[in-house]
Amino acid sequence: MAGNFWQSSHYLQWVLDKQDLMKERQKDLKFLTEEEYWKLQIFFANVIQALGEHLKLRQQVIATATVYFKRFYARYSLKSIDPVLMAPTCVFLASKVEEFGVVSNTRLISAATSVFKPLKYPYLIDFLLLSHSYLGTPVLH
Questions:
Q1: CB–CB of 109/125 below 8 Å?
Q2: Which among 94, 82, 78, 86 is positioned nearest to 32, based on CA atoms?
Q3: How many Å apart are CA 84 and CA 118, to the nearest integer?
Q4: Domains of the chain by start residue, with CATH
Q5: How many other CB atoms are there within 10 angstroms of residue 100's CB atom?
Q6: Within a 10 A sphere around the Cβ of 1, how many other Cβ atoms?
Q7: pLDDT, tens digit, for every residue of 29-78?
Q8: Where is the Cyclin-like domain positioned along the sequence (predicted)?
Q9: In Å, what is the CA distance from 140 to each residue of 17, 50, 71?
Q10: How confident is the model over 88-98, as pLDDT tens digits?
């Protein structure tokens, strides 16, 4: 960890000003309004909360998953990876990072299927593991 906040990786990678955020968000605002964009962010924060409650995770794990989700989409367009896939992936990674214990693949898919019931959750564990490796790139460091 850097002794100086201004030289830390947190400051250098994650303290984004409004101009940086808008630059990344422009790709999404081509097909969404600002209001729709924020509604999607809120919707998926609620999805992550529901997944965490279904899996009986601590609130700290759920909060970490939400931060990972928001940080990922602060840097990438919503079109880059389906948020329906990314939300459970963030829960999976957060459970590992927060040392809750790894959520089993079958429990995670079962929870996602339950939470996304009206959508008939389209992904298998292979997709979650693949996106987990993508999420674990320097984007979140």
A1: yes
A2: 78
A3: 12
A4: 18-128 (1.10.472.10)
A5: 17
A6: 6
A7: 898 899 999 999 999 999 999 999 999 999 999 999 999 999 889 888 88
A8: 46-133
A9: 17, 23, 7
A10: 999 999 998 88
